[in-house]
Amino acid sequence: QVQLVESGGGLVQAGGSLRLSCAVSGRTSRSYGMAWFRRAPGKEREMVAYITSGGSINGKNTLKGRFTISKDTAKNRIYLQMNSLIPEDTAVYYCNAKASPYDYWGQGTQVTVSS
After folding, report:
1. 17 — phi, psi (to 5°)?
2. Are 77 and 70 in contact (CB under 8 A)?
3. Where would a tag sit more exposed on the chain, N or C end, judged by fewer CB atoms within 10 A?
4. What is the tens place of the pLDDT at every residue in 14-35?
């Protein structure tokens, strides 16, 4: 089992920044790919960015340049740095750990961007 706990969400004005953090605990010896997803009100969940166990990064093209995923292996944490936030970024952000057939999710953290 792997437990994921997100933190760092909140209310921010448009143009501001937030850094989300995901604490990973449990059976972390397995090589998981880690990702951030989000679900905006009335929309489907979408992948924001992911980082492989080897450190390769990819993400939603329209967010590149504003959102950056990173990880600190020593601290068992992954981060999502979000800059130049816009109201359309308002969503619940979820941390995900996946290594087939295992797929784990955090409880989510709310990000609200005011105009």
Report:
1. -130, 155
2. no
3. N
4. 999 999 999 999 877 668 899 9
The answer for 55, left when phi > 0, alpha when psi is -120 to 50, beta otherwise, is left
Q: State how far the Cα of 84 lies from the Cα of 105, in Å rounded to an integer.
A: 26
CA distance 104 to 87: 28
Cα separation, 23 vs 101, whole angstroms: 21
At 72-95, the pLDDT tens digits run 988 999 999 999 999 999 999 999
- Give the DSSP letter of residue 42: T
Residues 6+ away with beta carbon under 8 Å from 70: 51, 78, 79, 81
How far apart (Å, rounded) are the C-alpha atoms in residues 71 and 74?
9
Residue with tokens 């130049």: 84
β-pairing, 109-114 vs 10-13, is: parallel
